Amino acid sequence: MNERKTLEERAQMTDLERLRHSCAHVMATAILRLWPNAQFAYGPPVENGFYYDFDLKEHRITPDDFEKIEAEMRKIAKENQRFERIVISREEARAMAESGRLGGLADRPGNPSRFKIDLIDKIPEGEEISCFKNGEFIDLCAGPHVGYTSKCKNVKLMAVSASFYMGDESKGQLQRVYGTAFESKEELAQHLVQLEEAKKRDHRRLGKELKLFHIDEDVGQGLILWTPNGAVIRHELQTFISEELRKQGYNQVFTPHIGKLALYKTSGHFPYYKESQFGAIVENEAMQACADAGCTCAEIMQRLDALSGKLRQQINDRVGSEVIPESRVLPDDKLLDGFMLKPMNCPHHIKIFDSQPRSYRDLPVRLAEFGTVYRWEQSGELNGMTRVRGFTQDDAHLFCTEDQVAAEVLGCLSLVKVVLNTLGMNDYRVRVGLRDLDSSKFTGDPEKWDKAEDACRQAAATLGVPFTEEPGEAAFYGPKIDFVIKDVIGREWQLGTVQVDYVLPVRFDLSYVGPDNRPHRPVMIHRAPFGSMERFCGVLIEHFAGHFPAWLAPEQVRILTVSEKSEVFARDIAAQLQAAGIRYTLNADADKIGAKIRNAQLDKIPYMLVLGEKEAASGAVAVRHSKRGDLGVTPAAEFIANLVAEVKERRL
RNA sequence: GCCGAAGUAGCUCAGGGGUAGAGCAACGCAUUCGUAAUGCGUAGGUCGUGGGUUCGAUUCCCACCUUCGGCUCCA
Fold this sequence. Notes:
Blueprint: H1 7-11, H2 15-34, E1 39-42, E2 45-46, E3 49-55, H3 66-79, E4 83-88, H4 90-98, H5 114-122, E5 129-134, E6 137-140, E7 155-164, E8 173-181, H6 185-201, H7 203-209, E9 213-214, E10 225-226, H8 228-247, E11 251-252, E12 258-260, H9 261-267, H10 284-292, H11 297-305, H12 309-319, E13 339-341, H13 346-353, E14 365-374, E15 390-400, H14 405-422, E16 428-434, H15 446-462, E17 467-471, E18 480-486, E19 492-501, H16 504-507, E20 512-513, E21 519-520, E22 523-528, H17 533-544, E23 557-561, H18 567-579, E24 584-587, H19 593-602, E25 607-611, H20 613-618, E26 620-625, E27 629-635, H21 636-648
Parallel strand pairs: 11-14, 16-17, 23-24, 23-25
Antiparallel strand pairs: 1-3, 2-3, 3-8, 4-5, 5-6, 7-8, 9-10, 12-13, 14-15, 15-22, 16-18, 18-19, 19-22, 20-21, 25-26, 26-27
Helix pairs in contact: 2-3, 4-5, 7-17, 14-15
The structure holds one RNA strand of 75 nucleotides.
């Protein structure tokens, strides 16, 4: 990520990026005034601000230092230094860097600007080398910058963290200070308010407050426990998605959470993705036999990784090349088979497809499952519901003829569109991952690729949402379409993907009988349009900020009695809601009505029924909506009928 | 996995070498109230876990676990 941007890319910097880039220089100037030995490395603008990486041994920056640094930055802004572009020769640049002058305030003998030296060496021969000077600070920099430092006054430092030079751990660890900056004070203030908003919407916080899910250390990190409230939401979503799947001719299946290692050797997932899978599960007897034979741990691992000569031969024959080297083969009596927690559902679904002969008349076969998979994500990556180690994909695998690919991809996309529309998530984009023509990473017949890529491209175009084509982003076995959702705060989340696959049908030797009465190879489409229920719910929680529409809300109605005098009536209304299948609770506590309303509001219950003596007398309910406020008095039957319709239609 | 920060009551947080404190929540009593907080009272903690230093550790030191922010990664 720390690659030098090309000059062209730099020229495309927006005004805001240019400002933030200049702010990075101002921050470096300020930090150098405070700690003259700092060695600056790389300081670009980023999505929400900027950062600068630097090495500083004698002091570890903490948020307590921000005030001091910001004060110095404000001073520099006041000094209104001009940003001056200076073109120098490679030799001059090196000399300046050697003396510690680049990325420094003055010559620093014995303190050469080592990162800058490296950066100079990385600049291609013949390319112009430029510096930018503001006041006493000179930095190696291609620019561009704003004219004067006075522009850089609406700045705030946000965070400090560790980073590596060029992302390379071996180069030693640097300190990184993040900041943000805007043209105006108002925009900065607004950004900070937005960040506060984002914090309030954080699904981890709301998940706790609204009791939607729980992660327990004793169960394991990255493993979601869906508590009753969250389970209601997930169940409603799954019901909804299932209904849409039925409309589109999918068949639902169920498969177990584990499968034999050999299955994943056939698919090619094991041991290729071993790093991100849970370890093998081996039967006690087999383990004991290994122990009796005096196997070391390494030998056991080797026996697990290996496969039989027969399987190797089969797969190599099917693929038509030496995808599995001789070195992975062990004699059958040395092989150790075990089970794996499934990291994906496709092999199981493939086996269902392959469990009976298929005719072209049967195609496409669409097998859907809310399939739970397990992946060994790195511990530092885990995050609430959005990055976990066990999750349930809204998965399906479509087996079709080559001619059907385009229509099937289109079908997948229209499903996504229906669901996202229903949830009011209209701000999303589509990324079409194509192969990189220059790369050997992508296997298979170029003609098929062209056809599939074309199908994806055309399908994406019909969605009526922005899409980008990204060469090199395809899976190695086929092109794919990814959905990137933007939430209300503007953050992007990658959810599902649709992938066309020509490889697995080969590895599993899948076939169907064509009209010519001969076997043909089907094409597979993998699709998990929402990625996982976990991530999708996490995004959904933030999308709605916890204010779920009635059809999804764990508690749809809360009945609030004004006093004991209306309790009998309240119980009657409760019975009616129960009969109508509404999820409700009754709050007949001794609290005052204001307190009950406040609590229901905090619990983000969509509908509150305020029931006092007046309502009891007329058989009506006073309705309050958590977002729309007091809706006035309605006959109870009418309220219930409306709510039932609202839920049934999944209104927002 | 790497770097940094943090972990004290259900939640949000204060404190600090002499075995803990607030607000909210919970529970009890009183109050029966009309659209975002009624009052009083009670209970609740091996101060993340395990070691070490010490007469004594929640506080200091070490290791580990978990969380957060980044980095790297994401079939």
